[in-house]
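Notebook, bench 3.
Goal today: get a predicted structure for lysozyme from Notiomystis cincta so we can plan the truncation constructs. The sequence was checked against the plasmid map this morning, with no discrepancies at the termini. Length recorded as 121 residues. Pasting the sequence as submitted so the record is complete.
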Amino acid sequence: LLVFLGLALPGTQGKVFSRCEMVKILRQNGFEGFVGRTVADWMCLVKYESDYNTRAYNDNGPSRDYGIFQINSRYWCNDGRTPGSVNSCHISCSKLQDDNIADDIQCAKKIAQEARGLSPW
């Protein structure tokens, strides 16, 4: 798949995508029309959540947000520090901060599908 070219080199840490790269990735991964939202909606979300940076991190006190989609440790990933974490995406939060965003995409789509939109963000 084209989406993975240059995105997953073992041992590399983090990546800041350009706007054009991000649009291409979102289109290739079926975000246009997904849960009734456009690629533009998703671009806005990614821009303001992480500024296209896979290393983005935000400490909210009882939980934390990780990666390009700022996925929360309370419900979606396990960081080993969030009491009562549900880990609905069955992923370590640290995996959401590497340069391979395939797992981030899978989790973000699960979140949006369960919410029927972008309300969790």
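Strands lie at 57-59, 64-66, 71-72. The two ends are 28 Å apart (CA to CA).
Flagging this for group meeting.
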